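Many introductory courses stop at the sequence. We go one step further.
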Amino acid sequence: MARGWGRSEEDLAADKEQARDGRGGAAGGEKDRKARDLAKRRGLELSLARVEDLLSKTENPDRRRALETARAELTERLQEMRPPS
């Protein structure tokens, strides 16, 4: 039988991480939420930049329509998010 990480060792690491996350309380939860929101906003902004770059290079009309649809959806999703604080 191969030797290596046992299931119990992986579970211990996960349990420690969960316990550490649980100590943050309400203030930690708010901080985590803001960090997730900021990361999501940044991801949407990067996706939008990529779509706009592809639009500037694409000549195929079908591909352009698909990219324009994606751009509209990303723009809408960004507008729905709260502004970064």
